[in-house]
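Reminder: ligand-aware prediction takes two inputs, not one.
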Amino acid sequence: MNIIDIREKIANAHSVTVLSGAGISADSGVPTFRGAEGLWKNFRPEELASPDAFERDPKLVWEWYNWRRELLSTKKPNAAHGALVELEKILNNFWLITQNVDGLHRAAGSNNVTEIHGNIWKVRCTTCGSVTSNHDVPIEILPSCQRCQGLLRPHIVWFGESLTQEDLDASFRALRNCDILLIIGTSGMVYPAASFAPIAKEHGAFVIELNLDQTPNSDLVDVSVQGRAKDLVPLLLPAQ
Ligand code: BJW
Ligand code: ZN
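Here is what comes back for the chain with BJW:
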């Protein structure tokens, strides 16, 4: 099946769900997590992206997030993000589940989005739990809550933390109800998102993977296309 057949299948679908990962933002110049140029190359995840790390050294963790906020503040959505906005407009039933915390899907104009790993432009109070938007670059270290003076942390799901029940419910609903699941630019190594392809398949979805490389999902999906997201995703839109 080639990309033209996939386009036709999407045009005829009743309901399409997308699962995106760092690869879709790689084409905007945002580093991925794993691989040769990945964010983890120079850091151990458990040293920075875990509740223990934050408890041990909140300043170090915030410095890492400030570095990433600064980098992200210069990045814009690319043609792949834009094409998903168009798909949402064209299709009656469209849902986007993203693992990305960069906010680029919403910046592009997507509305039907669940950001399952949170958002780097939001902060959460470790004392009262209130979540607020914060676009400061850099953020003042250490930041404190305006309501209760508690320590603020990034509103991001770290290793060992659970996704919110609301986000899990929205994701499972979209996976159970779709007849096509489109997986774009994720290594498929982090749970629970890594289980989304098998879940959608069990519920009868046709599963398509778009990725620069092979992934652990490549053998499980119905069709796997290799290439850059910014080149492939726009080809899924109806021909002009
Ligand atoms: C391109 C491209 C281009 C490049 N075009 N493509 C069950 C089994 C085993 C382990 C676990 C399990 N359940 C839970 C765990 C533990 C853990 C986990 O999964 N560990 C694995 C690593 C084994 N999971 C969790 O802890 C999760 N919590 C949870 O399950 O709670 C319940 C629970 C609690 C306690 C114990 C047990 C259960 C939470 C996971 C949260 C992950 N958060 C992170 C870090 C956020 C930090 C931050 O950003 O500030 O989110 S991890 C990191 O990986 C980030 C990403 O969203 C996530 C996924 O990465 P992604 O998007 O796939 O990126 P890459 O870099 O891996 O891949 C990029 C891909 O793009 C590649 O394939 C490239 O080829 C491709 N690509 N350029 C197209 N141009
Ligand atoms: Zn507070």
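Residues 58-72 form the longest helix (15 residues). Residues 11 and 238 are 7 Å apart (CA to CA). We will return to this case in the review session.
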